[in-house]
Each structure stands twice: as C-alpha cells, then as structure tokens.
Amino acid sequence: MNWMKYRLIYFLISAAVVGAGIFAYFKWGLSLGIDFKGGALIEYQVGKDFSTEEAIKKIENPSIEVYSIQKAGENTYLVRTNPLDPHYRENIGIVLGELTGEATELRFENVGPSIGPDLIKKTIYAIAIAASAILLWVTFQFKSFKFGVSAVFAMLHDSLVLLGSFALFGHFFGAEIDFLFVTAMLTILSFSVHDTIVVYDRIRETRKKVGGSMTEMANMAVSQTMVRSLNNSFTIIFMLVALILLGGTSIKWFAIALLVGTISGTYSSPFVAVPILVSWDVLQRKIKRS
Amino acid sequence: MHLSSPAKKLIGILVLFIAALFISLPTPLNLDLKLGLDLAGGSHLVFEADTSKISPEKVKDAVVSLKEVVERRVNLFGISEPVVQTSSFGEKERIIVELPGIQNTQEAAELIGRTAQLVFAEVSEATSSGELKLTDLSGADLERAAVDFDQTTGKPVVALQFTKEGGGKFEKITEKNIGKAVAILLDTEIISAPIVQEKISGGNAIISGDFTIEEVKKLVIQLNAGALPLPIALVEERVVQATLGAESVSQSVKAGLVGLAMVLTFMILSYGRLGVVSAVGLIVFGVLTLALYKLIPVVLTLPGIAGFLLSVGMAVDSNILIFERFKEEKGRRPVPDALEVSFGRAWDSIRDANIATLVTAFILANPFDWDFLHTSGPVRGFAITLALGIAISLFTGIVVSRNLLRVFIREKKT
C-alpha cells in the first residue's frame, strides 16, 4: 500500500491535533498541581455528601485559602489549599466532620513554594538527556542523522499532544500537572521511539535485501509493521484502561496520560516519523539534482 | 528416550518457574513484598537547610553532619526502616526523611526539625533583670541524656551526664556561681534557671522545667542525637494513611487481573495456538517478576505497580513481533525454519526498541543519585519496575516462547 502518498494528510491531522492542544494551552494554560506551584492536598473520607461552597466558607480564614474541593469517589473528597501551617491541617478535618458526621484524613500532601522551580528544572534536564540519548542511539543504530531527527520529531509530537490534551482535561475535568505527569511524559518519549524503531528496523532490513527508493521502502515497512503496531498498542491500552477504571483516584490521571501518549505514540511512528523521514529524503534528492 | 535440546531447555525453564513460584507464593517462605509509603502508609518529609549563616565551603561538611544527626534522631524515634537522604540542587540543601507507619507529621517534624542547641549561661547580677553570659559548656559536652523523675514532685525531668571534660567545666561553673542562678538555654530560649546550692562535681545535672513526659522524651532524643549543625525548615510533607494504601493495593491488583485477562484473551483470539504460547510466557513473566521483586527487594509503590502493569502490556510485544513475522515467513519456507528465521529477524527490532526504553527508565530511576535529576521515591519505583519488566520480558519473550514453540511445532509435525 502506498502509505507515503498521503503524507500531507498525516501532517495536517497532526497539525490539527497539536494545534488544538496549543490553542487549549494558550487559552486555559496548564493547571499545575501542588508539586509545581506549592500548596496542600488532602483526601478525606466523609460521612455523606456535602455542599462544597458551604464547606469552603467555613474553612477559609486569613491563613487558609481553599483552591477547590472535589469529589474523588464514593464519599471521598479532595481539598486543595495554599501551603498549610501544620496546625491548620486539623481545622479542615474538623469543619468537614461537623458537616458530614465524620471525616477521616486518608492522604495529606503539603508542598512549600520552593520545591516547584527545582522540579521544573530537573524535568527539563531529564527530558533533554532522554531525547539526546535517544537521538544518538537511533542515529548510531541506523547510521543516519535523518532517522534520529525524525524519531525525535515524533517524540516531540507526542509530548505536545500529551501537554495539549492535559490543557483540555485540566480545564474541563480538573486534571493537574504533577510529578506523575512528568513521569508519564518521559515514559511516553520512550514508548514513542520504541515503536518508531520497529518501523525503522524494517526499512533497514528492506534496504539491505531489496533496496529501492526511500518511499518504497517506507511503504513496505509501514505495511509490514502496521498489524504488530496496532496489536501491541491494544495490549497496552487494555492494561491502562483497566487501571483507569479500577485503579483508584491516586493514579487515574497518570494512567490517562499514559493512554493518551500510547495512542499518540502508535500514530506518530508510521504517520509522523516515517513521513518526515521520507519527505526529508525526497527533498534532499531534489536539491541534489538541481 | 532422547530429549531434544529445546526440550531440555524447557525443563530448565520449568525448574526456574517452580523456584520462582515457590518464592512468590506467600507461604512457605514468608518473603514479603516491600511496600512503599504510598501503599503501606507513612510520611515523607522534606526539610530545607538554612545555609545562609555559614561560609559556602563549609556547607558540604555541615550537610553531612546534619544528615548524621537527623539519622540519629530518627533512629532513636524507634520506627522500623526509616530512610534519610540528602538532596543538593542549585543553592538548596535538602534532607528527605521517610517514616513508614508515622501519620502524625507534626510531632515527627518537631522532633527532627528542632535545632536543639543546648547552652549553659551565667546570670550576672549587675542588672535587675539578670544579664546572661554564655559559658563554654554546651550540648556538645554531653555524654548522654535520659528521662528521669523529680523525687519530690514526681515531675519528669531530663537527667544529663557530661563527658569528663564537660564535667570539669560544669564543676567550675557551679563553683563560681554558688548562690546564683545558672541558666540552661535551648535554642536561645531559657528553659530552666536553677540556683546553684553547692559545687557539683561528678558531671551530673538535672534540667527540671514544666515538661510533659512527651516533651522530656523528645528532648532526650534531640540531646542524645546532638544539635543540628544547620537550622532546617519543613518544606514538603506527604502522608498516606495505611487504609488508603491497602485500598490502593487491592484496586491495583483488581485492575491488573482484569487487564491481564483482556491481554490473554486478545492474544489467544488473534494468534490461536501461538497466542496460547504467549499466554504461558506471560504467566511465567508474572511469576518471575514477582519473585525478583521479593528477592532484590524492590520497594513497590503505586506508580511502581503502574510500571509493572505497563510492562505486562509491553511484554507481549516481542511475541507479537515474532508472530507477525512468522505469519510472513510461513509462506516462504517450512514451518520450523520459518520459526527460527522469525526469531532471528525480530530480535534486531526487539533489542533496539527496548534499549531505547531502558535508557529512559535509567534516567527516571537515577541509580547513581545524580543531583541534577529527580531522586524521588515514586518515580524511581515506576522506573525500576518498568526496567525490570522489560528485562524479564526479553527473557520470557525470547527464551521461553522460543523453546515452547520449538517443541510444540516439532511435535505437531511428527
């Protein structure tokens, strides 16, 4: 099948998805979790549902500012506030206890404002190191810079899709960018390139055995790996969907981030990395000829 | 009977599997999985040291002894397997303390975070309010501190025993100040100022203040562990109740089983008999992984479980690669040859692709504790289980499935 004939369409699809994400990012921004901006997050088990507005009114005082109270599951609520002084922690539980009969603290996280900036720096280092290591590995393994750069572009594409989708999820469903999101992002980088390498490997093999133009080789490789790629993604998606539906609140958004990344990563190998590789090759030949 | 080489290998694999099963099962070895704070319950505290008052070249030494003091305090606190780590990034020096089973972070933070600098001061009578003149006797001269009770009032007091040198200093101070008060200061606050009745030799003293027994216990721990060389402040705390942790465990197990069932069904539906082989491979994978978690041991966290589940999804990838290849090759050559060729050809992809994933896992796990990368527990847990999962899946995907298929297909032919 002549997959590469429709390169422009793939680029347009990617541009639309990434564009929508960038739009969401600039329109609403990312809602950063306490890991990045500081603050407290407390999960309570309460006696019954309650009016969050009333609770906020009762909890707030000059030292406690409630950012949000969210229902997290059956009779469990997440309360987010500014960084708390230790002795104010109990106040919130007492108010919720009065409102609902009983309130048990399940989880308490309190992060000062000095942690976030370091976290961002360390994340950038981690992504930069991972991306350069992968670029080097792919370039070395396939003996071509083109392969490496195309793979990194696909990785970049997946990261942007993930960030953009979380700008949307953040605005509509209250998803937050936290430490686990960063982990998901890095995992997705590796998943993206994992898939790309499988396709590249078929191109390399075809080049050795049959030869032909880059477009032909790419078409063959994409056809040969399509079923594998889809099947592999299905198995990962099964695990992640199970985790999202049954795994509890603490890692739900982490699993969703991995799911978005898996889908994007599956798409980006044949429809971003390989088309970039082919376009680059075609362009290079044109320039040489002229 | 002559056994073929793959059959011999299969027997080896079976032995390995049974050994792993033996280790993974809760009885009879009773090896427990190590659970992280988010699953077992406990608290994670991060303190930041104030290094503004010492010269930059002394920071490193100060942080080392800071860690030692914090460790001593935590150990004296009496909980099992606490973790104390330092993290240095940019200008910031931090101490990370993990306390399994502790939910009251306020108390723990007070115990760990108080500088606990003990000094003795003479009170000069020149002014009516009493001006303090610090002596050279301090917490550093203590041999040990202990909880004691005042014999007349029954109130808890701190019993001090000085070192030989400290005892000498104390003797001199008391001799000089008979009939006068000697103030005992903790972190620049006067906690007691008894009037000296007579010269005290022998190096023993008592601090009696208006203490509760808890306060005395805490103070004794702090004095025995020594004063902190740098003041520290709590900047981050995370507490998980054991009940939430237990719920997370049961939810993850449920999610894992459902996901696993879906993957197995999918593989069998897509690849028929080959799928059954990969299902067997996946079960071997699961048991081996669990056994290794217990043997290494891996501290399992919630993201760690997610990493494991993700690696289950990825573990069948090598099988899928081989099976798809096998479908292609089957038309071109006899089945056993096609099988060998598929394994050979698919190996390149499998190796190259998994190395890329291992690189990322390495960066996330940060095994050498590089300060410019994350050193946090949950992310590390995720990376370690993911990396282990990939390594084991290479073994089960290649060695186990390959030998199963060799025997399986040969026998089908005869």
UniProtKB/TrEMBL annotation, chain A:
GO terms for molecular function: protein-transporting ATPase activity. The keyword Lyase does not apply. InterPro entries: SecD/SecF_arch_bac, SecD/SecF_bac, SecD/SecF_CS, SecD_SecF_C, SecF_bac. Gene3D superfamilies: Multidrug efflux transporter AcrB transmembrane domain (1.20.1640.10). GO terms for biological process: intracellular protein transmembrane transport; protein targeting; protein transport by the Sec complex. It is found in: Cell membrane. One of its GO terms (cellular component) is plasma membrane. It is a multi-pass membrane protein. The chain crosses the membrane at residues 7-26, 123-140, 152-173, 179-200, 230-247, 253-280. Keywords: Cell membrane, Membrane, Protein transport, Translocation, Transmembrane, Transmembrane helix, Transport. Residues 100-280 form the Protein export membrane protein SecD/SecF C-terminal domain. Pfam families: Sec_GG, SecD_SecF_C. Part of the Sec protein translocase complex. Interacts with the SecYEG preprotein conducting channel. SecDF uses the proton motive force (PMF) to complete protein translocation after the ATP-dependent function of SecA. Forms a complex with SecD. Part of the essential Sec protein translocation apparatus which comprises SecA, SecYEG and auxiliary proteins SecDF. Other proteins may also be involved. HAMAP family: SecF_B (MF_01464_B). Belongs to the SecD/SecF family. SecF subfamily. This is Protein-export membrane protein SecF. It comes from Candidatus Woesebacteria bacterium GW2011_GWC2_45_9. The gene is secF.
From TrEMBL, chain B:
The chain crosses the membrane at residues 276-296, 302-323, 353-370, 382-405. SUPFAM superfamilies: Multidrug efflux transporter AcrB transmembrane domain. The keyword Transport applies. Residues 67-124 form the Protein translocase subunit SecDF P1 domain. Signal peptide: none annotated. Residues 235-408 form the Protein export membrane protein SecD/SecF C-terminal domain. InterPro entries: Acrflvin-R, SecD, SecD/SecF_arch_bac, SecD/SecF_CS, SecD_1st, SecD_SecF_C, SecD_SecF_C_bact, SecDF_P1_head. Keywords: Cell membrane, Membrane, Protein transport, Translocation, Transmembrane, Transmembrane helix, Transport. Pfam families: Sec_GG (PF07549), SecD_1st (PF21760), SecD_SecF_C (PF02355), SecDF_P1_head (PF22599). Forms a complex with SecF. Part of the essential Sec protein translocation apparatus which comprises SecA, SecYEG and auxiliary proteins SecDF. Other proteins may also be involved. Belongs to the SecD/SecF family. SecD subfamily. This is Protein translocase subunit SecD. The gene is secD.
